[in-house]
Write a structure and sequence with these properties.
Shape: globular
CATH superfamily of the largest domain: GAF domain
Strand order of the largest sheet: 5-4-3-8-7-6
CATH topology of the largest domain: Beta-Lactamase
Helix content: 40-55%
CATH class of the largest domain: Alpha Beta
Number of strands: 8
Structural class: alpha+beta
Largest sheet: 6 strands, antiparallel
Length: 269
């Protein structure tokens, strides 16, 4: 079975699976320094991470969300970026970084990733293809767990790799159930259409053929959290010659079953 690492939304602030920050949450972030640990730089860094948990943010947005002075917010974000706790998306906005995945894996605190190892291993064995789990990270998707096909031609996506949200079946799944404005924005420059995403929602799975990379096909299905929101995409990928140009016909049921098992693990808590 492939090695595993865990991705978390915000390890320091213990917050996960949100899509937006409400006015109440914004006030909570801004007030953290007044109810802090007494170590100011740590409290302020936690404020930055709490703001980024909601999604990508420009420097101006970080300042607005945290109440920090612009030079302070910039200095903290860049320092966190140096340590890979914060990253950048394709538009240069700050996002949560891959180091959080590694830390969370060591702590063993992510229920989804704790369940992902055996589920992806079983999916790989059932389909004969490499299996992955992706989470969205701004304009990118992050591979947070994988079980590689041990021999033969395979599509290898290492843990921690970031791929585009503009192509691939996992990108389709992670975008298909977004709110209309976010969906519309996500379709700009995408290699799939709104009509294709409508089909994904109707079927409950997505497939792609040479969409992300020539000669590679994939199938993906959504993993849902307790609120029924899509929080991840489980996928298999491999050469088109083996998966054919209709990979969903071969493996959609196995993918859906794996996604359902992971969703149930989240719901059970």
């Amino acid at each position: 079975m492939g090695s595993q690492r865990v991705c978390t939304g915000n390890l320091l602030a213990r917050i996960a699976f949100r899509t937006c920050i409400s006015p109440t949450e914004t006030r909570t972030i801004v007030s953290m320094t007044s109810n802090g640990s007494g170590v100011g730089v740590i409290d302020k860094a936690a404020m930055v991470l709490s703001a980024l948990e909601a999604g990508p943010a420009s420097l101006a947005e970080l300042v607005s969300l945290t109440g920090l002075a612009r030079p302070t917010a910039h200095r903290l974000a860049v320092a966190l970026e140096f340590h890979r706790i914060v990253g950048r998306d394709l538009q240069g906005r700050f996002v949560l970084g891959p180091r959080l995945a590694e830390l969370s894996s060591a702590a063993g605190e992510d229920r989804l990733l704790a369940a992902a190892g055996p589920v992806l291993g079983q999916l790989r064995d059932q389909t004969g293809e490499s299996a992955q789990l992706f989470r969205r990270q701004g304009d990118l998707r992050l591979c947070v767990a994988a079980a590689e096909r041990p021999v033969g031609l395979r599509d290898s996506v290492p843990i921690g790799a970031t791929l585009s949200m503009r192509a691939g079946s996992a990108a389709q799944v992670l975008l298909a159930w977004e709110e209309p404005d976010r969906l519309h924005t996500g379709l700009r420059g995408a290699r799939f259409s709104a009509t294709m995403l409508s089909g994904v929602r109707r079927r409950g799975w997505a497939q792609s053929i040479a969409e992300r990379e020539r000669g590679v096909a994939s199938v993906s299905a959504p993993v849902r959290g307790p609120s029924n929101r899509v929080v991840a995409a489980v996928s298999i990928s491999g050469p088109v010659d083996r998966l054919t140009r209709q990979p969903g016909r071969l493996h959609a049921k196995s993918i859906i079953d794996a996604a359902r098992t992971l969703s149930e693990a989240l719901i059970r808590g």
